[in-house]
Write a structure and sequence with these properties.
Strand order of the largest sheet: 1-3-2
Shape: globular
């Protein structure tokens, strides 16, 4: 599998170890919007803009809830002339 999207509410302890495995294997885990305590996308949060910015998922925050996120396997960038 080359990508996985999380669309459920998770906390830091649910994802810290898998996040490490993904990044050590050359992948990345990026945010695609923040959620509230009920798992709903926060109003005004544009998940497509957030995803395009490739913000990393952060840990040791005041709130232990994770944002929604996508985990990518190792990606290769194709040259513009290919």
């Amino acid at each position: 599998m080359d990508r996985w999207m999380d669309a459920i509410q998770t906390c830091e302890w649910d994802t810290a170890a898998p996040h490490l495995i993904v990044t050590e294997a050359g992948g990345s885990v990026v945010q695609c919007g923040r959620c509230d305590r009920e798992g709903n996308l926060i109003e005004g949060e544009d998940w497509q803009r957030v995803l395009a910015e490739e913000r990393p998922v952060l840990y040791n925050k005041e709130d232990d809830l994770n944002p929604f996120f996508i985990a990518y396997g190792k990606r290769t960038i194709k040259p513009a002339n290919s």
